[in-house]
Amino acid sequence: MNMEEHFEGETPYITLDSHTPMANSKPIHNTFMSKHVRKKLKETGYTSNQHMNVIFERTKPLRVGDSYTWKLREMEFNVVVLGKTELFVKGMKVYAYCVGIIE
Question: How many CA atoms lie within 13 A of 54 on its CB side?
Fold first, then answer.
């Protein structure tokens, strides 16, 4: 999977705990997960083979270690937040949440 792939035109139909992101990567195999995030996943006790990056314009009340529902139309996953990072993209501050797809 190309790590640059995302849901493009489907993003307005995505929600993470009722919040719609400005961007959302497609699922990425955990082989590409950093050691720090892999450690957080282990601490949560959940099992996950894939993760996604969900990006918002403003910070959301999503806590690392807590599980939430991610939806795209009729598709629904339970996910656990594994990390939150502030990024600057084209001069704009955004908030990226790494979520593991719970099996």
Answer: 30
DSSP type of residue 12: G
- Please tell me the least confidently modeled range out of 1-5, 23-27, 58-62, 75-79: 1-5
* C-alpha–C-alpha distance, residues 29 and 10, integer Å: 21
Assign 3-class secondary structure to 27-59: CEEHHHCCHHHHHHHHHHCCCCCEEEEEEECCC
- pTM, two decimals, is 0.90
Instruction: State whether residue 62 is helix, strand or coil.
Output: coil
In tens, the pLDDT along 26-75 reads 999 999 899 999 999 999 999 999 999 999 999 999 999 999 999 999 99
